[in-house]
Amino acid sequence: MLLVFARRLVHAFVALLLTASLAPAPLAAQTPASDDPLSVVASFSILGDLARQVGGDAVHVSTLVGPGVDAHTYDPAPADLVALSEADIVFEIGLGFEPWLDNFYASAQPPGERVVVSEGITPREGGEHDDQEGEAPHEDGEAHTDDVHANDDEASTEGEEGETHADDADREHGAYDPHVWHDVANAIVMTENIRDALAAADPADAALYEANAAAFIAELEALDAEIRAQIETLPEERRRLVTSHDTFGYFADAYGFEVVGTALGSLSTEAADPSAQEIVRLVAEIEAAGVPAVFAENVANPDLMAAIAAEAGVALAPPLYTDALGPEGSPGESYVGMMRANVKAIVDALGG
Ligand SMILES: [Zn+2]
Hints:
alpha/beta, two-stranded parallel sheet, globular, disordered N terminus, binds zinc ion
């Protein structure tokens, strides 16, 4: 019922926008003047922060999935659909992270451009963790995932056509790990993608976006170095993570951690709670790995991890910021803040 109402509202809005752009007098501005902020929608809080860093005063950013909220299982409100219909640009992670966005675009045809900010990042494959992978991401990409490269050029050059289509579909539907932001190098790529999209949509402010992005990238490079220095203080055999869902694959690859196991055993939080048997197996893995603590996440109820920690006789560390920023005023209110807070929590809990 609510969905039907929302859909009608969106259709009415799209019709209104079309009428406005057909009206003879003041045409809807394709290239807003610098005093007319570009209307930008970010799918979730982390992307909202990046878009604000690059857009500054020249953009108005609406974030759909707010701080502390789980984007995997999000159910858009009518106000979100209105925001999407009015946006000049919609930034999303892609890689199956925002299935509800696809549903919206399937039912409405809003005029704004969808920009997949993970473009250019070699995605990790979903499914089981393979500890041998990820040591050398560049070789990895070349060695056996030409399918990943096929996503870059739409017309497949040498591969079979059917294969490319299947890979595109995979890229949408969860065959890859969407949690790219946990590697700061990927956040830099995302920032560049945001910069390029804003500059293309609003060339009058391109120099501003360029300068903002350059300053932010410098900050991210410093953050990456800081994270590496922090992790250096943690003995290698202690760099082992147990979390609620499988969100730290890129972090583990980038910063030399092993993901011992996750409670949900899944890249998405949509997975059902683990069975008693699965919990027994995870507890055994925790004991075998000798990790002193397991981590809750800010987007998930901590009770499950608390139970697992109790069962394994290890500490429950403070929740990590995983798929969302923290509330305003918290250490995780920004991307840089959340990464810094996570690394501190990890080093504190595992350093013992
Ligand atoms: Zn997730």
